[in-house]
TrEMBL record:
This is cysteine desulfurase. Its cofactor is pyridoxal 5'-phosphate. Pfam families: Aminotran_5. It catalyses: (sulfur carrier)-H + L-cysteine = (sulfur carrier)-SH + L-alanine. It comes from Candidatus Fimisoma avicola.
Length: 378
């Protein structure tokens, strides 16, 4: 199968990542931070190395401020619910994933208000519009690094500067940019960064992380065993253990560290440029097909995503057809981001999302274009 659903999860994974996971599970997989024997300590050391490797990719000086989660959704929930309280105001955008918008909706019950800044028809959001939405009681700006619907890249550096000047917490959802775009928490003034391990970082499912800048008093999302302060019934708030209650996904985290090393060796900017070239190659063909409608900005303004619709065939029907008849995997529907679809004009129809990764080729793009051309003749 030609896999073009990397926006959901990347495939395939680097061989060294799979070897690391198998090696952990077959040779030394103890419970890290819980025992003093070799297997536990070895697992703990490897988790520590992965934490440092991932932190380094985002220019995070204090690796212990990087908390492992099972995905970006958990990381975003931890960051927002762990900091926001009654009377706080949050600024966000209409291009957000439900992992941002639903927690904010839930937090309304706690007395937290939010303002949604609308993007344009291509999913672009200007820093000036963000600035206009800031109020005296604004405590946080939370926004995606790139839309999971259109791929549109957001002005992180400009918004981060605004947040820093106004002493507002700046939280970034890095789900669609980590691994294919440079994210520097210092240069971009990012206070909290949520990332998945299994997308652009090419790690296994069930891995993610949240970076929290030193000085932010975060409350844990879960309470339970941490391997520290076991005589106390109060949940510790030390980083990272106080925010990783229970047994962590050590094999996945260790594999993720190897995947990040793979990404770092190539370079996120190199991967991003390659994916941009693939999308440009695909869209050049698709623009010559009158039955295909493209959404979003030019390839240079977005990540490796092409969003489209096909006259006469619904998004979910076309997804099934491409899979069953042509062996091509894409994603159709609303991509857990209904408000983004409303913003760009696909609220009624949804759309097909083609999302590429570093293992895709121009041959894959040509195969998809040919399949979409054949669909017209049916």
């Amino acid at each position: 199968m030609i896999y073009l659903d990397n926006g959901a999860t990347s495939f395939p994974k680097p061989a060294e990542s799979m070897r690391a996971m198998l090696g952990c599970m077959s040779q030394y997989c103890g419970n890290p931070g819980r025992s003093g024997h070799y297997m536990s300590m070895k697992t703990g050391e490897e988790v520590y190395h992965s934490r440092r490797k991932i932190a380094g990719l985002f220019n995070i000086d204090q690796a212990e401020r990087l908390v492992f989660t099972k995905n970006t959704t958990e990381a975003l929930n931890l960051g927002m619910t762990g900091l926001l309280k009654s009377g706080d105001h949050v600024v966000t955008t209409s291009m957000e994933h439900n992992s941002v918008l639903r927690p904010l909706k839930t937090l309304e019950k706690r007395g937290v208000e939010h303002t949604i800044v609308k993007g344009d028809e291509r999913g672009r959001v200007s820093a000036s519009k963000i600035m206009e939405a800031v109020r005296p009681d604004t405590r946080m700006i939370v926004m995606t690094a790139a839309s999971n619907v259109t791929g549109t890249k957001m002005p992180l550096k400009e918004v981060g500067k605004i947040a820093a000047e106004k002493h507002i917490i700046f939280m970034v959802d890095g789900a669609q940019a980590a691994g294919s775009s440079v994210i520097d928490v210092e240069a971009m003034h990012i206070d909290m960064l949520a990332v998945p391990g299994h997308k652009g970082l090419l790690g296994p499912l069930g891995t993610g992380a949240l970076y929290v800048r030193d000085g932010l008093a975060l409350s844990p999302l879960l309470a339970g065993g941490t391997g520290t302060e076991s005589k106390s019934r109060l949940q510790p708030k030390d980083f990272p253990e106080g925010f990783e209650a229970g047994t962590i996904n050590a094999p996945g985290i260790i594999a993720l560290g190897c995947s990040v090393a793979f990404v770092e060796k190539i370079g996120p900017e190199v991967i991003g440029k390659y994916e941009e070239e693939l999308i440009a190659y695909l869209e050049e063909d698709l623009r010559n097909m009158s039955h295909i409608h493209l959404y979003g900005p030019e390839p240079s303004e977005k990540t490796g995503i092409c969003l489209l619709n096909c006259d006469g065939t619904g998004a979910e029907e076309l997804t099934a057809l491409l899979s069953d008849d042509f062996g091509i995997a894409v994603r159709g529907g609303y991509h857990c981001a209904g408000l983004a679809h409303k913003t760009i004009g696909t609220w009624q129809t949804g759309a097909i999302r083609v999302s590429v990764g570093p293992y895709n080729t121009k041959h894959d793009m040509k195969a998809l274009a040919e399949a979409l051309w054949k669909v017209r003749k049916r």
